[in-house]
Amino acid sequence: MASFLWGSSHSKRKYHWVKWSHLCYPTEEGGLGIRSLSDIEKAFSIKLWWKWKTGDSLWANFFRSRYPRGLNMVPKVYDSPIWRRICSINEFASTLCGVNSDGSIFWEPTASGVFSLKSAYEEVRDERSSTFSAKLSWHPKLPLKIRLFLWRLLNGSLPISDNLSRFQTVMNPSICPLCRAHSDVVDHVFFGCTRIRPVWDYFMGIFGVSISNQTDSIRHVLISWWIQAGSKTLDDIFKHCLPGIIGWHIWRSYTSLVWGTADSGLASASIIQQIKQYTCCWVTAIKPKRLWKVSDTVFQEQLVPKDFRLGKPLIKSITWLKPRNTLKLNIDASYLSYHAAGGAILRDSDGKLVVASSFPISASSSFEAELVAVLHATSWVISLGFRSFQVEIDAMEVLEYLQRSRIGRRRDEVNRLMELSEESDVSYSGVLREANWTAHYLASADMGRPIIISNVADLPNQARNAYYSDLFGLSSLRFTY
Questions:
Q1: Where is the Reverse transcriptase zinc-binding domain (predicted)?
Q2: Domains of the chain and CATH, by start
């Protein structure tokens, strides 16, 4: 793979700009997302160990009967290579498992308790903190060549004089081939050059992007574009992707002057026109159907084809349904890396409030947060003396977990709840998010402590508005494409 990325030319070894170990980090951590073969081998060894430990296949039964050693996992010289491989990973793999009350084990890295090769790989690989620029430079709408270009730009891997100096290459003093008035350094070539700055100013004027007058760093310029971009309009897609497209065309102009046949009189207007032609083709190719809003300026500046029209979404009306002759409990959870909370509201057959609650929870994933919210809220309502009600949640994965596969660290709690539900008359069903807004806003209220609400006036503002919409049968809209 290193040969593929850097290789050699005419029997001459090329520069290896980045260490192989750095390439193996995920893109959001500054790598290329290439998986290390040694880490893959360890992950597959854990998979073998897991199958030997929990599987019920012919292979698993054979190995358990062939090597019945209990805690003695020291392989002998004459043991099979597969068994030696299982023994070598046993100590590490054992730390990733939890034990249920009945002695069965579950896989701790996943919230569901089910083993997955992906989670095993995440456990064995080296990690480093993610960066804002690394995350946003790999926008899915950008062509792969531009994403790779941005990665090289942000990692100092483009063959520009100040980058080449890392390899102690003997070079004559270099000047910028674009303006021929400044040293050949990355920040100048991509932003500070008098031929390049008007290109950035032109497009920043179109999209209203502002940057500090004191900045001269291309990294800061890119981040300024990205932090001012939203996600709902075509203009936002441009703010995410256009900086990479501009940088790519600047690089093409640079290389054509240094290694190509272009003359030194390359004008800013020429680069701007090339970018416009490119964006017209790019927008047609990505077909952003989800974005039905686009500013007139984008058309006026010819950044999209004249006949370009965004697709219109299909609109579906969704209404919360009142229960018939029973009660209905809607539950939802809010999960962030630093905080998780649940929300629940119990209503009668007329849609009127019986009781509601917002409560903090402890969870390590969105799945676990949704599951814990269901466990907490349902047990709480049963403890209040209600024995017959419907439970609605918008997390289909959690609903499937409750109804089918009950494994993992929460298995015992779930089993107790389901037994209690069967003794009572509690049923579980799924609902779309648009019909669960009241519980959603209760979970998102972030009150910091458990709150029990029995009066509509005490509901948080957004939850109260959603409650009245449900009460009067008002619909929410879902856009489908």
A1: 115-200
A2: 2-36 (no CATH), 37-124 (no CATH), 133-300 (no CATH), 327-480 (3.30.420.10)
